[in-house]
Amino acid sequence: MTDIRKYSDRKEYLIKAVSERRRKLRDLAIQYKGNKCEICGYDKCRQALEFHHKDTTLKDFGISAKGYTRAWKNIKNELDKCIMVCANCHRELHNNI
Q: How much is the pTM?
């Protein structure tokens, strides 16, 4: 018996598809920026890696906030304005430490 998707299953399917696409784009972004914190070299937990805009006046969109719904070309252009840092280094940057 074949498993046929029903219209009622569409919402769940789309949620999973979007979630998977965002995960893949985040993995690509991390890889594109070198897989580690550009300040201290941290690379143990990918969820702890974040993107910090070097100049916020040039920021078109936040990478994590709605950024993964865009085309890879646009994400890459925005990533070129950022450095990738671990959560600790990111907090220190924002507190001028």
A: 0.81
